[in-house]
Structure formats: structure tokens, C-alpha cells
Design brief:
heterodimer; A: mainly beta; Ubiquitin-like (UB roll); 5-stranded mixed β-sheet; two-stranded antiparallel sheet; B: FAD/NAD(P)-binding domain; 34% helix; disordered N terminus
Chain lengths: 81, 437
């Protein structure tokens, strides 16, 4: 297993350890996951796939619950889409 | 991953278990040991549920490893990363994964869908870095660095202590644990714990680990402050307010059972899923174990899971031998419930402009005028977003005494491709709206 994985969050390259979820990658990239319907920044709340606050776009697929998806090498993560 | 959907992959089991936490793993193991062909499905990427989270960066306890070994030895078919979202016909469930839809057929079904944290709205609770207590722990287990971070832990329930101990062990600076219950309420619980040797050891060990951490009772968060992200928490402590600068607020008000799938299947629910002595629900062939039958903790979940697995596998005599242990567990659960009962003052934490529904940004003032959950939903869209009321439902139950509405499929937001891939999608438009897509 590689010691780190490289992926992009909103175009910015970041490296994470294997076993890191995409939700954590967005936090490491210092971005909120989404903007609410009234324009407020939101980040992960429940950490277990219930609240959907951490939903992001991964490789073009929108509404991915990022706390339940592991980072993969080369992933393209977009927040607030 | 993340490619177009194919037609549903079909799999058939004698016993299908939904939820691979302690109850689900125990159920699967015991059913498989009876000779049944068992499937174990879970929406997470590894076994263990929220409490064990095996396969995480920070490791898992020996008891978790033992059960995983038993799951593998019993040749249970593990279906991780699949989320059950609909029952098209009796005996069939649809589940969505990254690569497509699975059609899971069963003779007997065991629901072990666990619990989630209860969140109560207060000003600022929607700021990033305000999280569930279990939520922050889950993120740390998923790789979030916590070393040197200043963490406030607040809410209610034994989970707060376990989370604080875990975070401290991983280098967090736990500034304070604010427990809303009173000291006298907890002292009664402490006394009751003495009938549970395993539990009191656990409590004592945590006490030692948390020796230097201020543990404050009759205390709760009244506001979270910060521009774009959490910067401080204001707490109420013995009638006075105090503002503390921090990086994270880990805040949960005990747990609520995940009963949505049971409700979809038509099982009788009264706060929790109703079961008989063999963990059978009111729907023939559907059993339920662990937190969905009432919050009771790990030991009770393991016992209920085993009883359900043995009952589903036809070994009722073996299941009966576990009844006394389940009784002890249930007694503990009722003591827990009493000790951490939510105080009425928490109903006034939300201010008129405090959001109650985070998906649709519905403030408290808009909800106040309605008398039922259904009316509020229809008029304000409260509970109509992607979480489908999983967060605001338990909150409004406490705030307004509203009783949750009936459950409709899909019980989780489901991708359009998934719905298109299954023949059964007679009302997709409405479902998509309810799924918040």
C-alpha cells in the first residue's frame, strides 16, 4: 500500500494517508463541503452517512456522501456544486 | 468507481442482515453457524458499524477483530459499500453501491441498522467544525488530524466520555465536557451501574483517562460563534454563561434508533422497533436487533444480534439461553434512558432565526406556527431535503413533540441512474424530489 495518495480538491493538489475519507480531505483542504440554500458554509456533521452535509462532487458524480468514501489516487473532488 | 449504472446484480440469501455493526455481525455469525446462507450488507466500506469502524487508520478493539474473524470463518457473504434504499416486493431489497444496484433476495431479514446521534439546534450549530460527538470521532478515525486541537465536548450521554477519552488519547486538548444531565441524575446512574460489572469497569477506566479534563454537569452549549467556521462556544454552566475559544465542538444529545427501513417494511414502531422475545418484528420473516429496538449499547446489541441470528437459523432453544443476559442489558438501557433524560431548558436553545432543518434552512420561527410534523413539512419543506428528516426529525420530536411521518422510498437519496436501472420506478419524479436531488 502506498504511504500517501494524491488527489485534487477544487483543483488544489493534496496528499492524504490511505484510509482517509474524502470528507477529511476537504477539511484538510480547508474548504467547506457545500453552501446551504441560504448561502451558509457547511461541513461534516454526523460523520456516518446520515446528514448529507458533507456531500461533494467526485469525478463528476454529484451528491456523494464524502464521509463514506475513501480517497483514491487521482480523484477530482469539487465542493459546492 | 463512479461509472454508469448497470442492471441490478441479483443475490439470494436464506438470511440477509442489514447493518454490519455489533448486532448485525453477531446475527450473521449465529445464523450462518446454523447452516444458513447469510448475506451481511452495510453502507460503510468496512465492517464494525459506527462503534467499531474496523479498517480505520487508528485501529479497532480486540472484541471487534474477534467478531470479524467469526464473520469470515462462518463464510458470511460480506456486502460493504451498499446502501439499502427500497423494497420493491416482499423478500427483495434494492441497494445502491458505487458501481450499481444490487437486488438482494431473502427468506429471513434481520434489521441491525443501528442508531444515530440526536442533534438539537442552537445558534451557530450549523457552522463548520460543529459536529456530532460520534461525528468528530468518526472523522478522526477517518484520518482527521486532532493532535493539539482544542475540543469542546457537549451534549448528553455516555458517548461524550468515550469520545473525549478517544480524542485525548489521539492528542486533542479536551477543554471541557459539558453534560446537560444533573449530577444527582448521574449519581443514581452510577449506583445502578454497580449491578453491571463490565460497565462500571469501563466507566472507571474512562475516569482515569479523563482525570485532567473538566467534567461539568447541568451544562450545555447555548451558542457557537465564528465567521465561516467555528471559533468559540458559549456554554451555560450553573445558570451563568461562559465563552470558550476552540477548534471543534463535538456535540450530541445521546442517540436515536435508525428505524426508517423497519418503517418502510411495515414493522410496528413505537419510538423503537417492536420485537417479540425472539427479536421478531410484527412483519413475518423480519427480525430486528440492537439499537433500532431501543438504545441499549454494545453488550445488549451483541446479545440481541445473537438471539435474532439463532432464531432466524431455527435454533430457538439456543436463543432462549441468552434471554437472561438480554434482560440485564435492557435493565441497563432503561437506567441509561432515565439518567440522561433531556432537560426541558434545552427546548429554548433555538432562537427564532436558528435553523432547525439544515437541508432546507428552515428556521425555528417558521416551524413554531405548525402543530404537526406533516403540516410543517408540507408548508416549509422541513425534513424534505437529503437527510429526509433524520437530523431535524428527532429535534422537532423533542422541541415540538411532533411524531414522525410515514416513510417513503427511496429511504436514502438515490442517484437517478440507480432508479433508472431498476424496473421498479413507477413514481421516480416524486422520489427524486423527496431525495433532494
Amino acid at each position: 500500500m502506498p504511504s500517501s495518495l494524491a488527489l485534487r480538491v477544487n483543483g488544489v493538489a493534496i496528499e492524504v494517508s490511505p484510509g482517509t475519507t474524502v470528507a477529511v480531505a476537504t477539511m484538510l483542504a480547508r474548504t467547506s463541503c457545500r453552501t446551504s440554500v441560504s448561502g451558509m458554509p457547511r461541513g461534516p456533521l454526523c460523520g456516518m452517512g446520515i446528514c448529507f452535509e458533507c456531500r461533494v462532487t467526485i469525478n463528476g458524480v454529484s451528491h456523494c456522501g464524502s464521509c463514506q468514501i475513501l480517497c483514491e489516487s487521482g480523484m477530482d473532488v469539487r465542493t459546492d456544486e | 468507481m463512479f461509472e454508469p449504472m448497470n442492471n441490478p446484480a441479483q443475490q439470494k440469501f436464506d438470511v440477509l442482515v442489514v447493518g454490519a455493526g455489533p448486532a448485525g455481525m453477531a446475527a450473521a455469525v449465529r445464523a450462518a453457524e446454523c447452516g444458513a446462507n447469510v448475506g451481511l450488507v452495510d453502507d460503510n466500506f468496512s465492517l464494525g458499524g459506527q462503534i467499531w469502524r474496523t479498517g480505520s487508520a487508528t485501529g479497532s478493539p480486540p472484541e471487534a477483530s474477534e467478531w470479524i474473524e467469526r464473520v469470515r470463518a462462518a463464510q458470511v457473504k460480506i456486502l460493504c459499500g451498499l446502501r439499502v434504499f427500497d423494497q420493491p416486493d416482499a423478500g427483495v431489497l434494492f441497494a445502491e453501491g458505487a458501481v450499481g444496484i444490487s437486488e438482494l433476495q431473502y427468506d429471513k431479514l434481520i434489521l441491525a441498522t443501528g442508531a444515530r446521534e440526536r442533534f438539537l439546534p442552537f445558534p451557530g450549530w450549523t457552522l463548520p467544525n460543529v459536529m456530532g460527538a460520534g461525528g468528530l470521532q468518526a472523522l478522526v478515525k477517518s484520518g482527521l488530524p486532532i493532535q493539539g486541537k482544542r475540543v469542546m465536548v457537549a451534549g448528553t450521554g455516555p458517548l461524550l466520555l468515550a469520545v473525549a477519552a478517544y480524542l485525548k488519547k489521539h492528542g486533542a486538548e479536551i477543554l471541557m465536557i459539558c453534560e446537560q444531565a444533573s449530577w444527582s441524575s448521574l449519581a443514581q446512574f452510577g449506583f445502578a451501574l454497580s449491578t453491571q460489572p463490565g460497565k462500571i469497569l469501563e466507566a472507571l477506566r474512562l475516569k482515569k483517562e479523563l482525570a485532567s479534563v473538566p467534567f461539568v454537569t447541568s451544562s450545555w452549549p447555548i451558542a457557537a460563534g465564528g465567521d465561516q467556521v467555528l471559533e468559540s462556544v458559549t456554554i451555560s454552566r450553573k445558570g451563568r454563561s461562559e465563552t470558550i475559544v476552540c477548534d471543534y465542538l463535538a456535540c450530541g444529545f445521546h442517540l436515536v434508533p435508525n428505524t426508517e427501513l423497519a418503517a418502510l417494511l411495515g414493522c410496528r414502531i413505537s419510538e423503537a422497533v417492536q420485537v417479540d422475545k425472539f427479536q421478531r418484528t410484527t412483519v413475518p420473516g423480519v427480525l430486528c436487533a440492537g439499537e433500532p429496538t431501543g438504545i441499549g449499547g454494545l453488550e445488549l446489541a451483541l446479545i440481541e444480534g445473537q438471539i435474532a441470528g439463532l432464531a432466524a437459523g431455527g435454533r430457538e432453544a439456543d436463543a432462549r439461553r441468552l434471554f437472561p443476559r438480554r434482560e440485564r442489558g435492557r435493565k441497563f438501557a432503561s437506567e441509561l434512558e432515565a439518567a440522561f433524560h433531556l432537560r426541558p431548558e434545552l427546548r429554548s436553545l433555538a432562537k427564532p432565526d436558528t435553523l432547525v432543518c439544515r437541508c432546507e434552512d428552515v428556521p425555528y420561527a417558521r416551524l413554531q406556527t405548525y402543530t404537526t410534523w406533516r403540516a410543517a413539512k408540507l408548508q416549509t419543506r422541513c425534513g424534505m431535503g437529503p437527510c429526509q428528516g433524520r437530523v431535524c426529525g428527532p429535534a422537532t420530536e423533542f422541541l415540538f413533540h411532533w411524531i414522525p411521518d410515514s416513510v417513503r422510498p427511496p429511504i436514502f437519496p438515490t442517484r437517478v441512474e440507480s432508479l433508472a436501472a431498476i424496473a421498479h420506478c413507477s413514481e421516480p419524479q416524486e422520489h427524486l424530489v423527496s431525495g433532494g436531488q
